[in-house]
Amino acid sequence: MEGLFVYGTLRFPEVLRVLLGRVPEMRPATATGWRVRALPGVVYPGMVAVPDGVAQGMLMTGLSEDERRLLDAYEDDLYDPTLITLDDGHRAWTYVWKGSTEPYDWDVERFAREELPSYVDRCRMWRRTFGS
Fold it and tell me: Where, if anywhere, are coiled coils annotated (predicted)?
């Protein structure tokens, strides 16, 4: 079974613990032909096809079907679940952004430094309401 390539907020263990109650196995991965772009007015990113781009992220494995459904709901209809080939040849699902983006890449270090704690709180609130 394919894994899930995560490139934004889902690469943070703090977010995964709140959403899934655990941190699945993950390892670094890259995807050529993609970029992780900043999005207008929000702190999370979107991955879009860019011919000369390279997206940095993590390959997450060992998700249950229920966990995948939860992550699909978390990503909502703003993203298309898409099967891609990573640079190491593995196939993985990822969430491809469907809307417009900023003309620059998302800054993962800035997010971790300035936005992560409040983002985790928002995820906690979302998780409490999911399925109710």
Answer: none
Virtual torsion, Cα 98, 100, 105, 111, nearest 10 deg: -80
Q: Which amino acid makes up residue 61?
A: T
The DSSP letter of residue 109 is H
| 3 state DSSP class of 70 | helix
| 47 vs 51: CA distance, rounded Å | 12
> How confident is residue 2, by pLDDT bands cut at 50, 70 and 90?
confident
| Three-state DSSP class for residue 64 | coil
Helix 13-20 and helix 116-129: axis angle, to 10°? 10
CA distances 54 to 37, 102, 106, Å, are 11, 16, 13
CA–CA separation, 101 and 123 (whole Å):
22
Read off the pTM. Answer: 0.95
Q: Which domains does the chain have, with CATH numbers?
A: 3-126 (3.10.490.10)
